[in-house]
Amino acid sequence: MMIRFESVTKRYPDGTTAVDDLSLEVPRGGITVFVGPSGCGKTTSLRMINRMVEPTEGRILINDEDVADRKPARLRRSIGYVIQHAGLFPHRTVLANVMTVPTLIGWDKGRARTAAMEAIEKVGLTADQASRYPAQLSGGQQQRVGVARALASDPEVVLMDEPFSAVDPLVRTDLQNEVRRLQRELGITVVLVTHDIDEAISLGDHVAVMRQGGHLAQLASPGELLTEP
Ligand code: ADP
Ligand code: ADP
């Protein structure tokens, strides 16, 4: 088991219960998708894995180790994070953007650059594109840069929050295939959040269906969801 949620609850300071007593196991490898309507606690669940959000109750284990016991630098190295609008720095080149994580975790410049170039190549971008600025790339290419940045520190887990929802449908299919290919080739564990049930079924090896109030409705294989009455 890669990631385990043990009775995890998150209440925000304003009293909103975003996640309510969630217990769930994310298997090693493959793509696990959290799906459900807007506001049901998907993003909050994802962000508790890398401690961008701290649980109010319960705990989350990665490889049987409480994430609360992991040093921030180690969490950053071992868990990549991809968001909807890539979140790139506009005044830095693609290469410099992808180097941010390896640099943050203290790798020297040479190592950070090598790791970044490798990650850029992995997502199908060229050295020429690496020297450009984000605005000079298409939306889909920018999202590839976001994925490259998440992969640059050679993580075991990659978290993706609505990674395809800002790009048009044809590009979306390309990116979905790319993520599937990368997951297999690198043997990483991908945890992906989407509100799109079709995407969850086509992309997920395991699907956690959430419902309003931060509850887990069902943990299923895509096949089980398809054959539901
Ligand atoms: P989803 O990703 O499924 O859309 P979220 O995890 O973003 O759900 O949000 C779950 C609930 O928690 C929503 O009601 C949302 O408005 C609320 N919420 C999210 N972030 C915060 C926050 N920082 N402070 C207060 N409420 C929040
Ligand atoms: P996304 O849809 O990309 O997950 P959101 O627009 O839901 O992002 O949230 C953007 C930021 O606002 C996040 O940091 C989230 O935690 C925070 N946030 C979301 N909902 C609320 C809320 N009801 N109250 C306070 N902060 C919130």
Description:
The chain has nine helices and ten strands. The chain has helices at 42-49, 72-78, 94-104, 109-122, 127-130, 139-151, 169-186, 197-203, 222-226; strands at residues 3-11, 17-26, 31-35, 57-62, 65-66, 79-82, 157-161, 189-194, 206-211, 215-220. The strands form two sheets. It has a six-stranded mixed beta sheet with strand order 6-7-8-3-9-10, sandwiched between helices. Strand 4 (57-62) and strand 5 (65-66) form a beta hairpin. The longest helix has 18 residues, at 169-186. The chain is globular and about 45 Å long. The protein starts with a strand and ends with a helix. The model has no long low-confidence stretch (mean pLDDT 93). The structure holds adenosine-5'-diphosphate (2 copies). One adenosine-5'-diphosphate binds at residues 12, 14, 16, 18, 36, 38-44. Keywords: ATP-binding, Nucleotide-binding, Transport.
In short:
Residues 3-229 form the ABC transporter domain. This protein has helices spanning 42-49, 72-78, 94-104, 109-122, 127-130, 139-151, 169-186, 197-203, 222-226, and strands spanning 3-11, 17-26, 31-35, 57-62, 65-66, 79-82, 157-161, 189-194, 206-211, 215-220.
